[in-house]
Amino acid sequence: MPNPPIPTSAARAAVNAAATLTRELEQRVLTPAVEAVTSDGRKQRWEKHKQERRAELTTGTIAAVQALGPDAGMDDIARHIGVSKTVLYRYFADKNDLAAAVTLAYVETTIMPRLIEALSGEIGDYKLVRATIGVYVETVSSDPNVYRFTMARPSGSRPVAADAEKIFAGALESTLESRFAARGAQTSGARTWASAMVGATTRAVEEWVSSPDRSAQALTDELTMMIWSSLVGIVRAGGDPQAFAADPPQLPPVP
After folding, report:
1. DSSP string for residues in 214-231
2. Alpha carbon distance 99, 200 (integer Å)
3. How many CB atoms lie within 10 A of CB 91?
4. Mind listing the pLDDT tens digit for each residue in 153-212?
């Protein structure tokens, strides 16, 4: 795959996709609180206050998790913020609801701005891939407690984390479509490839953050090797699975 700067249109598409999907995620998280106010018949008076208070408590929760660790309970979090647990339950249905709000804040204020910056940079393809992976790994490395509290929760209690991964995959899908189309390759598999790359990255990071047996740079290099090799193979086959299957890249012989 050649290494030209990212086209402006590709960067714009990636940024727009990320912004749209982030708004969808925000709507999903905020809907329960809005519905609760509506059912009480006081939406106009209390909706703004409720969202502002949730935002304050979410920010306080992030600080609590940073200080206390990802396994902090509602009692610990409330005590660190300086409120009663009853107050937390007034604005959040349970710990999963609180974690969902923290996930949204984490994605919006930390992960997504850095990823968008990497996607929008005027850099070549290989450097773009490595920079994007590096941003994600370094963000997690710099704040592992918040990451584990939000993104690395058990699968049954992490629907918002799954939506966050959908955001990343949507942004990557737009980038793959633009870059593959510019090379005359088929783009029908862009969603599959984007989802697979995001899934592999997030799973590897989850495993690593629980047991950091190597540096963030080493993990970035390993993920870059895998994903870049996949992209090169896809483009060489023109994005056509049948062409790829008819002439797959060959492993070197065993010495």
Report:
1. S-HHHHHHHHHHHHHHHH
2. 23
3. 20
4. 554 455 566 777 777 788 788 888 988 999 999 999 999 999 999 999 988 998 998 889
pTM: 0.75
Residue 10 and residue 8: Cα distance in Å, rounded? 5
Amino acid residing at 100: A
Q: How far apart are CA 239 and CA 165, in angstroms?
A: 23
**Rounded distance between C-alpha atoms, residue 163 and residue 148, angstroms:** 16
- Token digits of residue 75: 């009692």
Is-contact 208 182, C-beta < 8 A?
no
Tell me which residue of 121, 133, 115 sits closest to 222, measured CA to CA. Answer: 133
Which residue from 121, 108, 127 is spatially nearest to 224, judged by alpha carbons? 127
Find the length of the chain: 255
In whole angstroms, give the CA distance from residue 112 to residue 126.
20
Q: Percentages helix, strand, coil for the chain, rounded to the nearest 5?
A: 80, 0, 20
Reported as a single tens digit per residue, the pLDDT across 92-134 is 988 888 888 888 888 778 877 887 777 666 677 888 889 889 9
For residues 60 and 57, what is the distance between their CA atoms, to the nearest angstrom? 5
Measure the CA–CA gap between 49 and 45, rounded to whole angstroms. Answer: 8
115/210 Cα distance (integer angstroms): 22
Residues 241, 189 contacting (CB under 8 angstroms): yes
Which residue's structure tokens are 């870049």? 228
